[in-house]
From TrEMBL:
Protein name: Peptidase M20 domain containing 1, tandem duplicate 1
Key words of the record: Hydrolase, Lyase, Metal-binding, Protease, Zinc
Domain of life: Eukaryota
Family listed: Belongs to the peptidase M20A family.
A Pfam cross-reference name: M20_dimer
Cited InterPro entries: Bact_exopeptidase_dim_dom (IPR036264), Pept_M20A (IPR047177), Peptidase_M20 (IPR002933), Peptidase_M20_dimer (IPR011650)
Function: Secreted enzyme that regulates the endogenous N-fatty acyl amino acid (NAAs) tissue and circulating levels by functioning as a bidirectional NAA synthase/hydrolase. It condenses free fatty acids and free amino acids to generate NAAs and bidirectionally catalyzes the reverse hydrolysis reaction. Some of these NAAs stimulate oxidative metabolism via mitochondrial uncoupling, increasing energy expenditure in a UPC1-independent manner. Thereby, this secreted protein may indirectly regulate whole body energy expenditure.
Record-level GO BP terms: adaptive thermogenesis; amide biosynthetic process; amide catabolic process; amino acid metabolic process; lipid metabolic process; proteolysis
Residue ranges crossing the lipid bilayer per the database entry: none
Length: 455
């Protein structure tokens, strides 16, 4: 396992270098996977191709071509990491501390890249031949929106006339102890994801000598605009989107007084929203979030800056549209001197099925319960964005879930410091995909209880 994790981490390291030397990281990845998964690369059931130079598409042939295929998705790139931010181990060392492997990408989502491939390798070694064919797609630029990797893979599949039964990507996880009053862990399967907007704010001004400053500078005007956005969060919308279904599903797992509140969301949504907004990870369920992520201005300490720019990254609650968010930014900033530009954005994603007849949801749920018998499974709205949104023309059912455990304090590791995965959890991830691939081989789901009763 440690060897695999080292491959994960070292691979992540090379992906980071991709901007300087893409071919090096590619060669390194190919070398790693060929060495680690020889059976996959020698199996007559598997076709592997590179898309957009660096993304990987695998087709695993099923013995029953009449069964609609599905797609397992993950990505090979990572966000940057710097040891000087306060990591307990160098972020690309894969150092093991107390049963955890530390490293950028261990949660997001190299544990899934390796987990999927490892599970497939084991299945092939056992002589397993799937009945239902499936694709594995490993994008190389998810962290910069997937416009090269996922977009091109989706377009290749579309050109080939592929229709998918469902897609399973990263996103949600198993949450334990994150919401007070909720008894036991909850596996949230993302049936949708929030929209997003990246907005650039800028102020331009004639530069001059700092000894004779104007009463307001470009930096001061922009800083005030950014502060207004932080001081005036987007409206609380808890209860108006699919997050309502999540809490309805989980209601019976809350301790008694809270259970009553959770079971009556028609009355208590504002109260629950008020409680959830107190913590950044649960606030993400409540509203469109606003994060000022970049601020650039000034070239010299004695020159009035001619240009100040800030980037604001928003994640849009499903009860709002991109246009509504842009209008609110405009009115909150309320200063004509601040130029507001939408750099990129999208509305929230459609909601996938999660009922008893939903093949993808039910198979993922069954697999989760096989591995973790004590968790409660519920649908949820993923608060981050994933490559899976580029596949929405190929299927109506997209799910976002990796069985990674998040305990208190762990959500900050996502894109943060001390990202890590326990060795035990990595084993569980391999077991999850190992089981999922076999569970997908049923022809169709058993009849739901309700229709049996009707008969
Ligand atoms: C029982 C309910 C507890 C809920 C607590 C939810 C806390 C959410 C924590 C983590 C999930 C974050 C998922 C984000 C996945 C996005 C992957 C990614 O980085 N994409 C790029 C991007 O969004 O910019
Ligand atoms: Zn990710
Ligand atoms: Zn990420």
């Amino acid at each position: 396992i440690r060897q695999e994790c080292l491959i994960i981490i070292n691979y992540a390291k090379y992906i980071l270098v991709i901007k300087l030397s893409p071919s090096t990281s590619q060669i390194y990845f190919n070398f790693s996977v060929y060495v680690s998964f020889p059976t996959i690369f020698s199996s007559s059931l598997i076709q592997h191709e590179l898309v957009a130079n660096y993304s990987h598409l695998f087709w695993v042939q099923g013995s029953q071509p009449d069964l609609l295929p599905y797609l397992l998705l993950a990505h090979t790139d990572v966000v940057p990491a710097s040891e000087s931010d306060g990591w307990d181990a160098p972020p690309f060392s894969a150092k093991e501390i107390d049963g955890f492997i530390y490293g950028r990408g261990t949660i997001d989502d190299k544990s899934s890249v390796m987990g999927i491939l490892q599970a497939l390798e084991y299945l092939l070694l056992k002589g397993y031949a799937p009945r239902r064919g499936f694709y594995i797609s490993l994008g190389h630029d998810e962290e910069v929106m997937g416009y090269m990797g996922a977009v091109n893979i989706a377009s290749v599949l579309k050109q080939r006339g592929v229709q998918l039964l469902f897609v399973l990507d990263e996103g949600f996880a198993v949450f334990d102890g994150l919401i007070s009053g909720l008894e036991g862990p909850a596996a949230l399967i993302g049936t949708s994801e929030k929209g997003f907007a990246t907005v650039k704010l800028s102020v331009s001004m004639i530069p001059g000598h700092s000894s004779m400053p104007p009463s307001e500078t470009s930096i001061g005007i922009l800083a005030a605009a950014v502060k207004r956005l932080e001081d005036n969060p987007m409206p609380r919308l808890f209860g108006y989107g699919p997050e309502r279904g999540t809490f309805e599903h989980l209601a019976h797992k809350f301790s008694v007084p809270v259970r009553f509140i959770m079971s009556n969301l028609w009355l208590f949504s504002p109260l629950i929203g008020w409680v959830l907004e107190r913590k950044p990870d649960t606030n993400a369920f409540v509203r469109t979030t606003t994060a000022v992520t970049m601020f650039n201005a000034g070239v010299k300490e004695n020159v009035i800056a001619s240009l100040a720019e800030a980037y604001v990254n928003l994640r849009i609650h499903p009860a709002q549209s991109l246009q509504e968010v842009m209008d609110l930014i405009q009115s909150t900033v309320g200063d004509q001197r601040v130029k507001i530009e939408l750099i990129d954005g999208s509305d929230p994603l459609p909601v996938s099925s999660a009922d008893e007849k939903s093949f993808g949801f039910q198979i993922i749920k069954k697999t989760v319960l096989e591995i973790f018998s004590t968790v409660t499974v519920a649908p949820g709205i993923c608060v981050g964005n994933t490559d899976s949104r580029h596949y929405k023309d190929l299927t109506s059912d997209i799910y976002r879930f990796i069985p990674i455990w998040f305990k208190p304090g762990d959500t900050q590791r996502f894109h943060g410091i001390n990202e890590r995965i326990s060795i035990k959890n990595y084993e569980e991830i391999v077991a999850f995909y190992f089981s999922l691939i076999q569970n997908c081989d049923i022809q169709k789901l058993p009849e739901p209880h309700s229709s049996v009763h009707e008969l």
